[in-house]
Amino acid sequence: MTTYLLAGGGTAGHVNPLLAVADRIRFLEADATVLVLGTAEGLEARLVPARGYELIAVPRVPFPRRPNRAALRFLPRFSAAVRLVRDVIRSRHVDVVVGFGGYVSTPAYLAARRAEVPIVIHEANARPGLANKLGARFTRHVGVAFSGTPIRHARFVGMPLRPEIEELDRVAARPAALAFFGLDPERPVLLVTGGSLGARTLNATMVASAREIVAAGWQVLHITGSKAEVADPELPDYHLLAYCDRMDLALAAADFAVTRAGAATVSELCALGIPAVYVPYPVGNGEQRFNAAPVLAAGGGVVIADADFVPAFVQGELVTLLGDRARLGVMARGAASVGARDGTARMLDLVHGALVPVGRSHA
């Protein structure tokens, strides 16, 4: 029996691939134990127990960005987190630590190294995070979602996807998807989404351009996010939703998308062959722009800066693009050419390759 400790959390970009791998382990290895290391504040605090896994919470200890009082407290707090994880590895007889990035992964990697437990890493973003860059110094088992990710020992595995996306037959599911959202079977569907919290620029620009898009013969499925500040344009073919818990059906209905360029979003759209306009999130270390680079190079997407995503762009360039069916077909094939549906299986193969023979010491 193998005991896996999966570490990651904070955002959906870390939690969703972690859960995809956990679910595949549970499906294939009935006698395996899957433990998840996370924080009490992150998304994992809700999603991991809801999926039936034990969550072991460790304190959130971010690296200090400048010398101040918090920096003085960092080292003892971080050392305590490493000891906590090391105790978990020893007491629960963990065989392998699999990290997906985020604050909890750093103490997990250091604890695993001290306990001489193999480490496996999945880096979801094209620009790797600090935790995974550190962890890659301790292992040769590093899987990446995007080819060319600059991290040691990178091996392309793709993104571990949710089963409902990985197994989605868009053609077969489309009639049910259109009916679920009340969409017209005779009109193509433009999916707009900025994530669970929404994206202010996407929301405002798309609503301001609603009439022009509908007049071009399209219908819009616009998922605004729970904190959106836009009003429904109240047009027959413009469907505004605050939240969608059936993104598989939304993707089955979509012929084109306007979206942020988070790693999971880019990976899902490419896996399903859906072309898109990507508007990278303008805050952070710029990883979203890098995430979209492979699909842009393949001709499967258009990338535009957040500041440039204005009504004039939508009403001019986007509406013109949506009217060019031949180009949309080429873009769909380009997106599919860089997509992968087997990221979960590839990642689990990497994990199994790191496991040492049963019977080693947990000293």
Descriptive notes:
A seven-stranded parallel beta sheet has the order 3-2-1-4-5-6-7, with helices on both faces. It has a six-stranded parallel beta sheet with strand order 10-9-8-11-12-13, with helices on both faces. It has helices at 12-28, 44-50, 69-91, 105-114, 130-135, 163-166, 170-181, 200-208, 210-215, 247-253, 263-272, 287-291, 293-297, 311-322, 325-337, 343-354, and strands at residues 3-7, 33-38, 54-57, 96-99, 119-123, 142-144, 154-156, 189-193, 219-223, 238-241, 256-259, 276-278, 301-303. It has 16 helices and 13 strands. It is 44% helix and 15% strand. Mean pLDDT is 92; it is low at 358-363. Helix 11 (263-272) crosses helix 15. By secondary structure, the protein is an alpha/beta fold.
Question: How is the biggest beta sheet arranged?
Answer: 7 strands, parallel
SSE series: EHEHEHEHEHEEHHEHHEEHEHEHHEHHH
**First-last Cα distance:** 18 Å
Low-confidence stretches: 358-363
Overall average pLDDT? 92
Radius of gyration over C-alpha positions, nearest whole angstrom = 22 Å
Question: Which structural class matches the secondary elements?
Answer: alpha/beta
User: What is the 3D form?
Assistant: elongated
Q: Output the strand order for the largest sheet.
A: 3-2-1-4-5-6-7
What's the number of extended β-strand segments?
13
Number of helices: 16
Strand content: 5-15%
Report helical residue fraction: 40-55%
